[in-house]
Amino acid sequence: MKNKPQIALRYEWLTGSAVRAVLNELAQLRIAVFHDFPYLYEGSVDYERSYLETYARSERALLFAAWDEDKLVGATTALPLTDETDEVQQPFRDAGYDLSSVFYFGESILLPAYRGYGLGHRFFEERESHARQFGQYAIACFCAVQRTIDHPQRPIDYRPLDEFWTKHGYRQEPTLQSTFHWPDIGETESTAKKMVYWVKSLTATPPR
To answer: CB under 8 Å to 69, separation ≥6 — which residues?
Structure first.
């Protein structure tokens, strides 16, 4: 196997309203990455900008961005669960969680050419470090779409990220579910998608 070419990226940390400065770039990156299985997302910049305003309105939100010169090639987001939408909050509310103790991790998105350099690990580290600094949040969580094993657009070589997430200390919590709606590739109308949450305690001392 040939060695991967070296890359030199620039990293940027944006919080709260500063996120608005890169909403267009982030929207385009989300559309590009989520177009692939398992999300199969037929997105629009207008919708993306509206959704991403959730982060810009949250004082404690984080956007950690990776740039190759002036091109946004990777990004990850996080914000307090109390600043998320009702559809994200509801399963935690129903299960009796203290919402003010939970930090929600949004997307981790990376263009294919930049995968395999450890940025996926870096994304988790940056979000967990950001959440811990406040001394308030006991739990980190994120959600992932559930697709059937026999889905017609599932690539033969597709590998789910469950093992990667488990290695980072997250566990799937099937009792925590939301339903999101978006149009799949080729669709003009949004359809329901089941999202299942993964959770991790933030109170344990992180490994060195």
So the answer is: 10
How far are the Cα atoms of 49, 94, 115, 196 from residue 167, in angstroms, in the given order? Answer: 32, 28, 18, 18
Distances (CA, A) of 99 to 95, 115, 191, 204: 10, 33, 28, 19
In this structure, which topology does domain 10-201 adopt according to CATH?
Answer: Aminopeptidase (3.40.630)
H-run or E-run covering 74 = strand 71-80
CB 184 within 8 Å of CB 43: no
- Dihedral angle, C-alpha 165, 75, 16, 176, nearest 10 °: -30
The per-residue pLDDT for range 180-195, each reduced to its tens digit, is 999 999 888 899 999 9
- For 131, residues 6+ apart whose C-beta sits below 8 A from its C-beta are 78, 103, 137, 140, 202
Q: What is the mean pLDDT of residues 86-115?
A: 96
Identity of the amino acid at 52: L
- Residues of the chain with pLDDT > 70: what percent? 96
Give tens-digit pLDDT for 21-46: 999 999 999 999 999 999 999 888 88
CA pair distance 131, 137, nearest whole angstrom: 7
